Amino acid sequence: MTLKKVISGTNLEQAKSHNRRVVIEAIRTNGALSRAAIARLTALSSQTISNIVEELEAAGLLRPEATLKGARGQPAVPYSINPDGGYSIGLQLDHQLAVGVVTDLSGAMRARIERNVDQPTPTEAMPLLAAISSDLIAASRLERQRLLGIGMAMPGPFGVEGMTSVGPTALPGWQDFPVAEELEQLTGIAVTVENDATAAAIGERLYGVARKLGSFVYLFIGTGLGAGLFLDGHLYKGSRHNAGEIGHVIVRPGGLPCDCGKRGCLERYVSLRAAYDRLGLADPDHASPELLEQLLANGDSRFEAWLAEAVEPLRQAIDILEMALDPETVVLGSFMPLPVIEALASRLEPLHLSVSSTSARTTPRVMVGAAGKDTSVLGAAALPIFSETNPQFDVLQKPVG
What we know:
Blueprint (H helix, E strand, L loop, with lengths): L11 H19 L4 H8 L3 H13 L3 E3 L14 E3 L5 E7 L3 E8 L4 E8 L5 H19 L6 E8 L24 H9 L3 E5 H12 L8 E6 L3 E7 L2 E3 L35 H8 L9 H9 L3 H25 L3 E5 L4 H9 L19 E3 L6 H8 L19
Parallel strand pairs: 3-6, 6-7, 8-11, 11-12
Antiparallel strand pairs: 1-2, 3-4, 4-5, 8-9, 9-10
């Protein structure tokens, strides 16, 4: 007997919810739009758009702006996002820092809190994250009923035997821990969890150099190294939400040993931890990224040696990403200080010959991210809206009119 693959349909309420999010994201992406412009942009019917706009205006999510005079007929009323219509919390947990932000519906940051941590276990981190969430709500004085949810970014990979919770680039004790369920129980707020590189790709797409791009890779250079993949207008997460774990691609066969059990992994050469190891720091687990900026400014020979060693593996990784995915660009960013990322980027030329090597390019093959060190936590804050249940970005790429 041959088994056929079942394709699940979408019930009416899910379709309505999806379409409401399509409208919200269309306006977030393009600015104030009339009903007719939204209909053209989203390919939804005029009647559907009218119904959705009325619902969203009544809910306080959209607000009418001054009317636009048309060639004939009634003047068109443009609608914009009401910043106070909704809020979301973004949380980011890493080895030394827990960061939380509140953003309004327009994406503006309303409050920010950070707390020092030391490779926290779930037992240590969960009460702290719940407390940060509570403090953010109090600090921003937001209406609790308008809180859309919590998005959380943390290092991957997730649920991989021998790689999750292993070594200095992973958080200890998080293997198989139900992060979303536990945090939701502590806060009473719906929680979405994503790896930090994917969250950073969302942040860069919404706030940085990738705002107008349909396909790009965000290389997240943190304690380890991962990639967020934004391809053909939507995020690619993989079958187990572990797509983009390029830090464990072998770039030097037989090279430096990695805690995953392999040798020559990319993040052993390009990451904060790789830099700390190359510098021979006595306590790399508690080193500060700002130290690298100071060493760069001082022309430290050990740091220059790390830069020289990191360039070729990074160049090779970019070549792999370009040949496999054909993105418009590769964006470099994360916790590493901006001058250090710029120093790495400036040394990459000449890049290897790849499918991205064309004179017809309008975007550089490699760009430095512009959303800053809060890229991941801002992306996390967008998760309650920008989640896998929300609209694909490809419906928002069509030009209006």
